[in-house]
Amino acid sequence: MKTKIFLAFIIVILAALLSNFIFEWLIIKDFDNYVSGVKEDQLYWILASVEGSYSNGRWDKKALSESIHWAIMLGINASVLDEKGREVITSKEVLNSLSGPMKHRMEDMLHIHETGNTYYDEYPLFIKGKRIGTLLSHPFQKKQIMEKEAIFKKRIKKFFIVSFLIAGAGSIIIALLFSQFLSKPIITMRKAAKKIAEGDFSIRIPVKSHDEVGRLSESFNMMADALHKEEKLREHLMSNIAHELRTPLTIMKAHAEAVEDGVIEDKTKGIETIKNEIDAMIKLVKGIEDITMAEASFLTKGEMTEINLREFILGLVNEIKPAFIEKGLDIKINAGNDIFVTTDIEKLERIIKNTISNSLKFTEKGGVHIDYGLHGKEYFIEIKDTGKGITENEISNIFNRFYRLDKSKEGGLGIGLSIVKELVNVMGGKIEVKSKPGTGTSFRIYFPVS
Question: Phi and psi dihedrals of 412, rounded to 5?
Fold first, then answer.
């Protein structure tokens, strides 16, 4: 990761270097084009001035001399030929007509004595579409201007080299720092993942930001919490299973040995006891299967469906009502209004059925009353029974797996309410329990309104 980030920065630096060279080439090219454009404009101005020196079929020598003089000042060595190719005036002729000091200064400035270029560019001269002659020109070797142009180009190159060295060195330093900074949380996460793989589920990553890395750290911690919880549940489950299996197996072994040794004379009774313990083990295995199926549903996102909450609860009540009638109990639902909610009906059905079944199990007279309604941005379902109630100390344990209020075998395996609690959490809800011994228990479950 660290190496990849550093290489990415290096690629960016190389791209910047390439763009630097391209930019330098474009600037120098634009500068050369600008210089060429200026010279071209100057030449067109001289052509216009020379053509203006011709009138009435003849050349105005004074005006023509001034035009050539301006050409010399602009660094152009010019000569004018008439339409028959005869020389009319030259730069040398104009220079010779100047005063001594001025001629000397012009020669020094233009380095006329060093001019070695004998090639002249030819430009035809026209008046009203009629050719009147030709302008011959080539530039003087103006060393000062040439040197200034060379210095300008040299400074541009130097500026780009220095700027690249500064930017490149800075980019490399930043690349090192950023690669270290960005890779550090990933390295920390890799070490934490290794710890979890080794079985240490207590490891957590400190969340120091709210960006993608921070959110990834939060997700990692959530995963670690889930794994830690699952590991604890597994250990607890195995411990409970071992405990639950130990008792019937011990009883079965003792009765089998007693029958074999003749301690129990009534073999039929001994076999009946063994069969009862086998039934208890089958019930335990069935409970474990229920837990496995429930856990599978915890991880599966069910289909969200809009339902009429009142009709949904009525349907469940009608299904479970025969069990209440058989026990001589009542089950009633509050005559409330229709409430439409969007929910996972499979999970909601299991929550309500398990809670009602738990109330039925611990209620001997009276019955169960079901209420529902809206509470702010949540809707609730309340299942209230007239059972024997739960002590305050026991309320905190009723959602633990295999915890039983009634330690007898008829009291169940103690998994129904644990499944309810975990399903409620999966659906983003919460459950409240209120109870007093001898008066009954109330389960109120809240879910967010989707």
Answer: 90, -175
